[in-house]
């Protein structure tokens, strides 16, 4: 495991995560992920630490209102959120992680348009 940092575009929201040297992220085709280019990296809550910016986060919920989409209120970037599929974890946007070169990344497509049918495929 190694510790990486990341955050939003303006830097008001910063976090750190612990990840292995080989990770799989999901490129989801649901409406919100497709429009934002989100790459899901599921991180257990005990391996996620918000360093700063709690006061800058805005909470957006839609459809079932279970997922907590957290956006920076200054720059609008969603660098992480609490997903419906893993409510005790965080989904971190790989595009918002300061990723060291030693991490091997595999991108797996996920049919989020049919989320209910496919949700077991997200690990």
Report on this model:
- The protein has 123 residues and is mostly beta strands.
- The protein has a single domain, classed as Metal Binding Protein, Guanine Nucleotide Exchange Factor, Chain A (Beta Complex), CATH 2.170.150.70.
- It has two helices and eleven strands.
- The chain has helices at 31-36, 115-118; strands at 2-7, 14-19, 22-28, 39-44, 48-52, 57-60, 68-72, 80-82, 89-93, 97-98, 104-110.
- The strands form two sheets. A seven-stranded mixed beta sheet has the order 6-7-8-9-4-3-11, with no helix packed on it.
- The radius of gyration is 14 Å and the shape is globular.
- The mean pLDDT is 88.
What's the domain count? 1
In CATH terms, what is the architecture? Beta Complex
| Measured distance between first and last alpha carbons | 17 Å
Q: Calculate Rg over CA atoms.
A: 14 Å
Mean pLDDT: 88
Shape: globular
Estimate the strand proportion: over 45%
Q: What class, by secondary structure content?
A: mainly beta
**Extended strand count:** 11
Strand order of the largest sheet: 6-7-8-9-4-3-11
Q: State the name of the first-level CATH class.
A: Mainly Beta
Number of helices: 2
Poorly predicted runs are none
Biggest beta sheet summary: 7 strands, mixed
Helix content estimate:
under 10%
Q: Which topology does CATH recognise?
A: Metal Binding Protein, Guanine Nucleotide Exchange Factor, Chain A
The SSE string, one letter per element, is EEEHEEEEEEEEH
């Amino acid at each position: 495991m190694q510790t990486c940092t990341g955050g939003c575009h303006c830097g008001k929201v910063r976090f750190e995560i612990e990840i292995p040297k080989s990770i799989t992220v999901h490129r989801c085709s649901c409406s919100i992920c497709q429009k934002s280019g989100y790459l899901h990296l599921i991180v257990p809550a005990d391996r996620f630490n918000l360093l700063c910016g709690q006061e800058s986060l805005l909470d957006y919920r839609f459809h079932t209102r279970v997922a907590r989409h957290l956006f920076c209120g200054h720059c609008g970037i969603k660098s992480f959120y609490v997903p419906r599929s893993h409510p005790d974890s965080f989904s971190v946007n790989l595009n918002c992680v300061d990723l060291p070169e030693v991490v091997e990344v595999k991108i797996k497509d996920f049919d989020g348009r049919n989320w209910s049918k496919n949700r077991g495929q997200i690990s």
